[in-house]
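hey can u check if this looks right to u? its 290 residues, i copy pasted from the old doc so theres a chance i mangled smth
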Amino acid sequence: MKTIFEKKRNHIYFISFFIILYSSCNTTIIKEQNALVYSPNEVSIAYFNDGIRLNREHRYEESIISFTEAIKTDPAFQSAYIVRGNVFYILGRYSEAIQDYDSAINLGLQDISNYALAYYMKGKAYIVLNEFEKAIENYNQVLLLNPREPDAYHDRGYAYFNLERMAEAITDISLAINFDPLNYRYYNSRAIIFYKLGNYESALKDILKSLELNPGEAVTYSDCGYILKSLGHYNEALDCYNLAILLDSNFLMAYYGRAELYSLLADTTDNINERNDYLEKARDDYARLQ
């Protein structure tokens, strides 16, 4: 079953890669929470802004050069390390990304948002590397800095899920929902955990809430199809697979789920014509997977 959790390994869609507080980019040094907020100089800011522009144009290697110049000009420019790390992350260069996040963290608490973001993105990198214990360690730091950060709870829940620590996964994702009850992805993620545990009724409740909040995700309709099929609601499951394919005609897991359902329907009917029709449809869907 292709779930939103599995999809996230390659498509981290809910994180904003460039959450940087430009308010710190001035020419003063101020006190904030007993820590000095460091202010980069004008030359380093110019390189930094150029890197942001190049990144928005998807000129990633050039943006790395600009961020590197910003760091050379001002080695204490915490935001530049974080954003260069994010570019490395986008490019799949996770070790280099982690090095940059560590450099930002080692500069200390110049700004609480940047400091937390460095830990958060470091956790994301470890998730992609399947180093879930290390990811949890970094999300713990984020939540010490901001105990109400829903994405950190959600992602830590994902790490627990991969370690098969299901109770902790459900607790964390439930906290994410508590802090951000309108985020459909959180409901989808918790639904997948309930599904894995065989709690199909709770999974269905969450997946329907996800669809209520955002009815435009093919993967959510496909997941709904799997859950309904497990509950024996075959016609409703078929509707979900059809909607998933309507939204994304290239979404192979929806074809796979629908093919399985057609095969199941063929086995449950005594009508020979109906059985042959289901089997033909199943073959057509399986053929799309080749």
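The chain has 15 helices and two strands.
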